[in-house]
Design goal:
alpha+beta, Translation Initiation Factor IF3, 3-stranded antiparallel beta sheet, two-stranded antiparallel sheet, 5 strands
Length: 118
């Protein structure tokens, strides 16, 4: 699987690769992370539960997780900026459940100071 590299809406490079193409990492500032804990809510959970019985994609959960991942990335970028970084390399996601109603999503990676090659 190829590494994912994408500039965030704010122009802050984030990649799953260990390096940024066309850039040189000058300093490693350590781990940056963004954490989100979400609940679907009782009403949506009931609707999603019925949909799960019919098989196929449960769009309520898909939308919740996509939104949560974006939110976790935004928080990770803010954490990296606080560390003095202008990019994040080796970004990953992790998730777990807290009880039966809560999902934790964390985006983490290495905050770096990078400059264009040349």
């Amino acid at each position: 699987m190829a590494p994912m590299t994408q500039p965030a809406p704010t122009g802050f490079p984030v990649t799953t690769a260990l390096a940024l193409q066309g850039m040189t990492v000058e300093r490693d500032l350590g781990v940056a992370f963004g954490l989100v804990v979400r609940s679907m809510g009782a009403v949506k959970s009931i609707g999603a539960g019925f949909k799960a019985l019919r098989q196929g994609e449960v769009t309520q959960y898909t939308e919740l997780l996509e939104d949560s991942r974006r939110h976790a990335i935004d928080r990770m970028i803010e954490n990296a900026r606080l560390l003095g970084a202008n990019a994040v390399v080796a970004m990953r996601f992790d998730s777990s459940e807290i009880g039966q109603q809560l999902t934790e999503i964390v985006a983490y990676g290495t905050a770096v100071v990078a400059r264009p090659v040349g």
